[in-house]
Structures are given as structure tokens and as C-alpha cells.
Amino acid sequence: MKPDGLVEVQCAKTNILVEDVAVEHNLIGDMDIDRPVVKSVVNAIVNRGYEVLVLRNQYDVTEDDSDWEKFVGDMADMDVWVYLADVGEFAGNAYGE
């Protein structure tokens, strides 16, 4: 079920903030599951029971569309919605929208 209500976002230029966990944004845009930023975000989500992950854009994770689809799908498998601030909407492919 999609979360209701307004999602307000304030993102630093080089960090992703997940509650009180700030992780450095990788400027090259590669997605590798061993990459510290991805591991930190996933660990924070799993350990704290988040329902929504807010990103500035998909390039905070990867430039590759197939990696992006996998990432969004993995988040959906954990019942986490991915919200993209640049387009102002949830990533929908993994949710059948």
C-alpha cells in the first residue's frame, strides 16, 4: 500500500540523510552492493523499519536503468517505497503502477 500524505524533502548536496544516518553520495553513480552508500542505506532501512526511502534522483544510486529497476525491486521486497524528489513521485515500476 502506497504511503499517504505529503513527503517533504530536504537533501544536502553530497549526502543522503536517513533519519540520523548520513551517507556520502558517490558522484560516479555506480551501483555495487558492496558500495558503502548502498549498504548504509539498506542497513538503516532494514534495522529501523522505514517505509519510505527518499532520494534526490535515481542517480544517487546508479545511472544504469537495469540496476535501478533491481534496486527499486529490492526495496519493494522489503516493503519500502522509493520516492524521487526531482520528479516529485514514487518510483512505480516495482509497484505495478
Which CATH class? Alpha Beta
Strand content: 15-25%
Overall 3D shape: globular
Radius of gyration: 12 Å
Number of helices: 2
Mean pLDDT, as a whole number? 67
| Spatial order of strands in the largest sheet | 3-4-5
Per CATH, which architecture?
Answer: 3-Layer(aba) Sandwich
User: Largest sheet, described in full?
Assistant: 3 strands, mixed
What CATH calls the topology is Rossmann fold
Order of helices and strands: EEHEHEE
CATH superfamily: Resolvase, N-terminal catalytic domain
Topology of this structure?
Layout: E1 15-18, E2 21-24, H1 36-48, E3 52-55, H2 65-77, E4 81-84, E5 89-90
Write a structural description.
It is a single chain. By secondary structure, the protein is of the alpha+beta class. It has a single domain (15-95), classed as Resolvase, N-terminal catalytic domain (Rossmann fold), CATH 3.40.50.1390. Helix content is 27%, strand content 19%. It contains two helices and five strands, in the order E-E-H-E-H-E-E. The chain has helices at 36-48, 65-77; strands at 15-18, 21-24, 52-55, 81-84, 89-90. A three-stranded mixed sheet has the order 3-4-5, covered by helices on one side. It is globular, with a radius of gyration of 12 Å. Residues 4-13 and 93-97 have low confidence and may be disordered.
Task: Record keyword descriptors for this entry.
97 residues, alpha+beta, Rossmann fold, three-stranded mixed β-sheet, two-stranded antiparallel ribbon, 2 helices, disordered C terminus
